[in-house]
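User: Could you walk me through two proteins back to back? I'd like the raw sequence and the structure tokens for each, with a short line separating them so I can tell where one ends and the next begins.

Assistant: Of course. Protein one, sequence then structure:
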Amino acid sequence: MSSDLGFTGADGTAARSAAGQGNSTDQPPTIYDVARVAGLSIASVSRVLNGQRNPRQETRERVLRAVAELGFVPDSAARALSARLKEVVGVVVRRPRWTDSTMFADEDENLQFPDMINRGMEIVAQQHGFDLLIRSVDLDEPDAGRRIFALARKSDGLILHDRILSPEELDRLSRQIPVVTLAGLPTATTANVHGDNDAGMRALARHLIFDHGYRTLSYLAGHDGSPDSLSRGHALADEASAAGVTLLTGEEWRGSYQAAGGARAIERLIAAGASLPRAIVCANDQSAIGVLHALAQHGIAVPGEVAVTGFDDMPVARHLRPQLTSVRQSIQDLGATAFETVYSMINRSPAGIDSARGRDIALPTLLIRRESCGCGSRSVSILSEPPAATPDSAHPE
């Protein structure tokens, strides 16, 4: 019997294999096959094969059984690649400086959308035996790129929360290390993960325009240049234009994703004697909280005089008074999907690095109708691709 064994690199390539040894196909066994048969992560298998971190005896035995069953023997190149893994993914979050000492300081610090995304990453990273190294940069930080490139040297891959780098910087970075963006644009060397902003906002716009008959809307935008804010604003503008509805936008309608920012925008508009629209569409729930507070302070009834909506459907949305109509996206799933994508790129799996780069992964959204838009007290959810009229599939939440 031939003793010719399979030699496989960590990128899934192989030099030679035992014909039929533990592998029913003509393809040589890979480290991914070992992980599948052992029921473990790639990182766990790598630790056993490279003698790292003293893995548990049970883990070691499962890996060795799978190796024997498949006839897998990693070559020196594969071992070198595995040994170089730091088992760390860097995460970069774009945050404003917290200088606000108003009543919204706690809300703006504790109701952070990026933190909920990071929790989704953390859960999946732990399953794969990886750690997260999180770095925040200011919205207007002049040399954020330098700090991000420094983080890259400590990481196997990077996840960028927002549009932080210039296209040239992003291209240079992604040629050095796997990069996944959140709410950006995919490139030839990066992948992008985001909620389906377009479908979610179009569903919300149609509901306000056709179900409630509102003819004047405004868009309270997020950070200047934020991909999420821009895509939601464009979708709303398209629907308003198609329906012949007035849409108010501009710098006076910017809440920058903060409760304090939403409240300040409304306060400034009222102080200037501006007429408020029939419905205020906020770029996120957090800014909607500030809008609701400011309107209540001036005795403006919601939704009787002005309807208010959010985006994200954070847990607090259903506990506000009135309950907040919002577009729900699975926030933790955004983080989990981003990590799985960068993990596949790091490990260079056949379905990973080649197919992931250039991919735009949009997760589904739901329109959640509650009291703040003028609906009844019972909240209902609607798929984010409805026709103009209320769909038959609407059901109590």
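----
Protein two, same layout:
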Amino acid sequence: MGKEDRDQWIVKCPKCGRVNGSCRHVSREDVRRIVRLLKAGVEVFPADEDDEPETPEPHAHEPTHLAHVIKPRFGWSDLVLAPATREALEDALTELRHKHLMYQGWGLRRVVKKTKGLSLLFAGPPGTGKTMAAEALAHELERPLHVVNYAQLENMWVGETEKNVERVFAKAAEDGAVLFFDEADAVFFRRGFMTAPWMNRDVNVLLDHIENFPGVVILATNLARMLDRALDRRIDIAVEFPIPGAVQRAEIFRRCVPKQAPLAKDVDFTVLAQRYVLSGGSILNVVRQAMRTSLRRGGRHRITQEDFLRAAERESKKGTLLAQDHLAPSLRQEGIRGYA
């Protein structure tokens, strides 16, 4: 420690009171470190007993939670799917359970030269069970599910997004997790001349990692047409999740209504399923709305068929409401304005 440092800073040991370069309680390196911190502008002051330590904010370049780790809640028996959808998922499970036989016993390794992972595309309207199926698949494999966090994955600094993608895949491989990209069209969009060069590069990196990832990766989307066409050959199994048929809808109604719910004797799920074409997510909304209507009515709180019918009508009209442009002037207003 130089003379100018000793003149400017006084470092006093709280035990022996010495202010020299070091003592038996404080080493010379400790003193140098303290001086460096003070010169850097670090403030040192006694803390009040009531003060709680603040949680440090992450550095702008440091990855935080790039993926949410989820312990699967749903199993195979919880899925209500169309036969073709279930068959495609069972194909995926079959390969994963018999990968050693396929690659070693049946000689597939000689063809592909490496043990490939499995990439799946779940495509279909909202609320048709894509996320639930991803959880069920991870549950069957007894693996955790890593759901990619796009807010943390994409970074404003050029080159940082590619590093985050590398970390996401590396962590999933380390944990043996099923990697899940929900709303995959947000990151696997089509490349083109109208897209920024670094965004095209990010898609290139994602495609490369999917091709070489040794584990299971699932992409789910409601807008399959927006995905980059290079995914065609990188996706091993494409699974369509259509709006469930009447038989599946009736079964979803039965499963969404708890056994403890006080149903009236006139409730008929088959009639509801035949009359209203709804996804599984929409059916859950109908059940919740029927419960609200019953509770608002008071009395014995019996949930009637009329409660379900009114709730289903309300859910069916939701799409019409979302399709309206409430900022656009009406035709009547346009006509009046034209003659004013």
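The chain has 16 helices and six strands.

Let me know if you want the two compared in more detail.
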